Each structure stands twice: as C-alpha cells, then as structure tokens.
C-alpha cells in the first residue's frame, strides 16, 4: 500500500506543472453514497459528491447539518472518534480511502487539514512547520528542512512576518498569524488536498481577508475543501458550493449558480437568510 | 439556689438559647418587613422580607454566640481563679501545680453532686465552688441574653423599605466564610510556630550546623545529633520510590488518557485509585513480610554467586532483613496512583485540537503523545512528580516497618537505613520528658521535613499555575 501512495504522489507532482499550464480541473475526489452515524444517530445520509482538483469547494449549511462530519471523512479523522461509523466509497487516485487496507496515517499525510481554532503545537515556529517533514522523513538534511520550512511559510504568506523569530513559540503569534502558521504546517507535508474547517471563524475581518487571499493563492496547487458559516466567504473564495441540510446534500454546483440561481427552494431560503 | 445553678447543663442550654434567639429574630424582622411591603404600593422596597429576617437574626445570634464562646473558653478559668482568691492563706502558699491538682479534685467532687466525706474544709470549698460556678453560669446566660437583646433592637430599628438588608446579609456570609478559611490558616501558623519554638530550644543546645551536617546520629543512647544519615536515608528511599512510581505512573496515565477505550478507562482508573486508599500500614507489613525477605534472598544469592565465581572475596551486599530497597519499592507502588491520577488529569487537559492537528498531519498515536501531548502536559506532569516526591519523603508507616533503625550512609540498597520520619516516631514514643535534647531533636527533624515538603509543594504549585495560564 505504501508504494502505491508514494507512486501516486510522484505521478501527481509530475502532472502538476502540466495541469497548471493548461488550467485543467478534474474530479480529485469522488464520494459515493457516504453515510455517517454516531452510535444510533445518523449524521449524514447517502451523500455523493465529486470534488474537483485545483479549485475551492465550499460546504455550507446551518449548524449541525453534517458538513464538518463530511469534511472529516475525507482524511478519516472520524476514526479517532470511537462511536463514529462511516460507510460508502471515497475514491482518491483510484483507491477507496475507506478501505480498511488504507493506512489512515499515510492518508492524512496526503490530505492536510486546518481547524476552526488556530492550534499551533507548543513548539517554536520552526518546529511547528518542521514537525510533519520530520515524522514523514521528507527532509534528508538540515538544509532541506530549512528550505522546506521557508517554502511553506512563504506559501502561507507568513515568511516576511516571522523570518527573524523562527525560534519563538508558535503561541506567541497573533490569531491570524497562528492560523496561517497552521496552514503552512499543513502545506509542509506536501499534501494534495487541504481541508479547512471554518478556518476564519475565530479571526477578525482583517485576518480573515488575509486567509481568504491565501486560499485563493493555494487553489492553484491544491484541491481545497472548505467548511464555512459565512455565505459571503463561500461566494468570495469558492468555485463550487455544496449546500447541506439535516445531513443531506441539498444542492451542489458552480458557486455563481448556487448564489444567483439556486435550483432548490431550501437553498434559496438559506442563502437569502430565511432560515439557518 | 445558687448552688443548684452550678449544675446547669450549659452546653445544651446555650445551644437552645442561641437557636431560639436566631429564629425569634428572623420572624420579627420578617414580619416587620412584610408589613411595609404589603401596606405601600408607593414605597419601593429594597430587600425581600426574608433578608430583613436574616439580618435581624444575624445581629441577635452573633453577639450571643460570642458570649457563649467566651464562656466555653474562659468560664472554667474564671471560676477557679475566683475560688483560689478566696482560699485561706495556707492554700495561697501552695505551689501552683499542687493547687491545680487540689482544685481538680474539688471540681470533680462538686460535679458528682457534692462531697459526702468527712473533710469539712474540703466540703466547704466544694460547695463554694458550686456557688461560684452557678454565679458565673447565670451571669454568662444573662450576658448572652443582654447582648442578644442589644443586637436585636439595634438591628430591628434598621428595618426600613430602603434598607439594604440583602447586601448586609451577603457581607455577613462573606465574613463567616472568611473566618472558616482563617481557622485553617491559623492552625497551620500555630503548628509551624510550635515547631519553630521547640526547634529553637533544641538549637540553643546543639549547634545548627552540627545537626545539619553531622554524620553520627545516636539520639537514643548518647547525645549525637548529626542528622545527615537520616537525610540520606530519606532521600535514598524516596529516590527508589520515584524510580518505580515515575515511569509506571506516567505510562499508566498515558495509556488511560490516550489509548484506553471508555470501558477500560471506567474500570482501570477507579482500581488504580483504590491503591491510594490502602492504609499505609498495610503497605508496611506487605513490605516487611513479603518484599524485604525476597530482597534479602536475592541479595544472599548474588553474594554467593559472586563469591563462588571468585569475583569478590567477601559478601558484596549487606542483605539485611529490612532494607532501603524493600521500603522504597513498596513506597513506589504506593505513590503510583498519585503520579498517574494527576498526570492523567493534566494529559486530559491538553486541548483535543492539538491532538487533532497532529493526527491530521499523519502522526501516529505514539508520535502524537511523544511530540505534542507530553510537551504540552510537561509542566503538569512535573508538578505531579514533585507532589509524589513530597508524599514519599513524608511517608512514615512503610519506613517504620521496613526500612530499619540504623542511621548510616551506605550506597548499598540492601542495607537497612533510617529516615527522618522513623526517627521522629522512635524519639516521641514511650516515656518522654519534654526538656531533653533527645525529644526536642524530633521537633528539629519535623521542621526540616516540613521545610523540604513545603519546598517541593511550592515548586509544584508554581509550575501548575504557569501551566494553567498557558492553556485557559
């Protein structure tokens, strides 16, 4: 299994430049008939959803509609919750990641995640970024590691602000900087997909704007799935939007279409603020 | 008549009186407040009637309570000094100790409803004692009633629509709670003061540095008070205990908080905490009867093997029937729950989002624990270890039974050592007089023990505080 994953990563890296020049998108992840339940309580009902590469897919819906639960299926974070049971197929690079043979630890190195609240490790800024490359053995030498840290911080738009204090603790940064540190940390493992679970809900509007710019930048390289409560944010950053309600997928489509011309009544009611 | 008063059961009487006064005050205050509450729609009432009731009750009850407490503490002494003042001249010249004994027998006779014997002087004094006691009791009750009445009338006059009875009652509650806290603090201060006082008496006879750094301890037979071997024994045993308890307790905590499922956790955690509930004397005889003989057997076997192999000419290990190792091992088992329970708490307090972050980057469970959870919980873990150390140093029963009595400095863990606590026990049990350096040295040892454990606890508290600041 390990070889397939490494190979697929290599083919992807090889393919990256080609796709970038041509600006192509294709379904990166294909979710088929996903059901999730916590104990007796079913949280997600039979959701099928293709997720395109090199673009941002926003998951919107009222609280408790299952969008975060769905997001956590994509890197099998639900495995860490004892009572949680996931069925259905999630195809990524021709493999079903729900297959028991897939090692969730390796999967998560391909699918990075950014959480609601900035959660830097209680380590220095440098070590926060270097943590992933270290545990996965991505850097051969100290120079490699330095370069990797710099590159990740640059991509997350944080390098200029922290380059002189890489050894100060990650907790010493401001909330917005911490969240960008967390994004840089996720990038450092060289993922193919980045999942974001309401990444701006704990941030002020200025820091939010920076993160949104960053997301727009990152979409050129990664497949991004973002859960958000803010419909303006979904409209600003995403290309495709999926609307969840009570554990069901109500509607999905191009973001413009969802926000200007929704097909479903419930979608329209939600985005115009009639409920939720 | 006055003699009859002497037999009054003051405890019950005062208690009933206080209860009556308090409830009486409450009802009067409440009724009075209800009156203006019901009458006027125009006046705005600040506090509900109940609070006026509490307020009046408080002011009725507290002065009477103060008088009652004063009687409980001073009543007996007042009766005695009054009686002593009236005694004939030949009693006045008695030594104070003898007089006290005599007055004790008078009090006993008076308490047993009079003296039926032939000694007429004794009988007269006993009767006078009862009279005086009756007078004091009656005046105490009168005083309690008078002060209650004063408080009652003063408080009643305050009851008015605009009066902030609710806030005043709140203030009274705060004062009461403060006094409860003050009792604990005052007790600690008192104990420390008595330790200090007796220690200073000891150090006026034995030089401080000789005590702290002397290497010969022989307090029972000759006057040798070099406590270094005791400190050595204490730390040696605590060290052995921590070598067991630190890793086992910590790993148990990691298993419980990170790996165990909810059902396993629900069983294992209480069982671990039962370990903390076992009386230390039970650990003590476990150490003495099971562990110590086993260690001795192993030590003897090692000695034999080494000698027969020709590596050493003489026995290498002391192989005593009681040993530092036996006491240390069992003490280590005893403090495991202290380490595991506290560490488990701090590990659980590490935010789940940190674990999620590590898992989401493809870290395994043990990588997450090693790189993220433990560093985040480290201050709390250190604090739990320090608390366990101070517990191990202060532990008495296990070492009394299994460590031995001989004060010496020996690196051999199978030799018997003695500790500070063991020596305090042996110095203060049996026939003792309180003036000799021998008994006073126990206070000096107690002071040292107190300072050491206080030091560890303070560091632990500081560390925990810093940790809290970071994560809340």
From TrEMBL, chain A:
Query: Which Gene Ontology terms describe the biological processes this protein takes part in?
Result: phosphate ion transmembrane transport
In which domain of life is the source organism classified?
Bacteria
Q: Which SMART domains match?
A: AAA (SM00382)
Q: Which UniProt keywords apply?
A: ATP-binding, Nucleotide-binding, Phosphate transport, Transport
**GO molecular function list:** ATP binding; ATP hydrolysis activity; phosphate transmembrane transporter activity
Q: Which SUPFAM superfamilies match?
A: P-loop containing nucleoside triphosphate hydrolases
Cellular component, GO, one term: membrane
Q: Does the keyword Transport apply?
A: yes
Keyword Nucleotide-binding recorded? yes
Q: Spell out the Pfam families in the cross-references.
A: ABC_tran
Pinpoint the ABC transporter domain residues: 29-271
**Spans traversing the lipid bilayer:** none
Q: Note the NCBIfam families from the entry.
A: 3a0107s01c2
- Give the protein name, as stated in the record: Phosphate ABC transporter ATP-binding protein
Give the organism, scientific name: Hyphomonas chukchiensis
